[in-house]
Amino acid sequence: MTGKNIIKYRGRLLREDSPLAFEEKCKHIGSTTPRLLALLHKYNTKLTFFVTGRLYEACPEVINDIYREGHEIGWHGHYHRPILEEKTLIEDLHASEEFICKYKPKGFRAPWVLFRQAFLPILIKAGFDYDSSVFGPAGSQYTIHGMRVYPVTSFPNFGYNKPLYTTSSRYLNVLKAFPVGSNFIFSLLRYRYDYLLRLFGERSRSCIFYIHNWQVFPWPEREMSVLRDKLRYVQKFSLSDVIQHLLCNHRFHRMDTMLSDMETFKGHYLSFDME
Q1: How many domains does the chain divide into?
Q2: What is the pLDDT of residues 5-28, one digit of tens each?
Q3: Which CATH number is 136's domain given?
């Protein structure tokens, strides 16, 4: 189970990509997504949901509900596996053909934010307009191989201010960029994240960060394996109150709105990665 997310189910440790774990995950998503959508509706907020093709196949009505509420549907790969070879990306694109045809997603974020910028032309050919599989300074945007790139926010260290595509654990690259926009850092900071957003806002810098649906309404006894099992971070608390606090005090937008205007500071960009 090294290097994999692990959950506890009826006292058993299961790899998250096992059939039983995926079945339980779909049940959890089906029961909690309406609560998440109601929370976003309460604050009149439209966000981006990066969804795997496999999850759409298992829970099509849930994804349709998200879409009908006016949220952006982006693509998160098909099987939620590392996309570090061109063959893997092409296989995932073919497997998600129905999903892509239905929603025509503009945006892509690779699982675990592990990706190679050399694959961007493949995404362009498949009809995508932007990629968010990279870390970079708040408020930054780039054009790489003809693709618009909106990095997940990081603090650049030692003057390193370039987009950081990585093909290994992003936590091993903290000397170049500290990944403050990652779900792991958000989970650790919780209410303190409000300070970061205010800091970026005072500088008219948009923060792009993501979390997972299971973090808002977590599974009982879920364990998240980090740093290849050298460290275990156990999340058994709900972030729903934190999300509600942020929604009350900040403006958040769909990521595709950056395609028309990224120069003007409008707020921040919170997205949900759904596996």
Answers
A1: 1
A2: 555 555 566 666 677 778 878 888
A3: 3.20.20
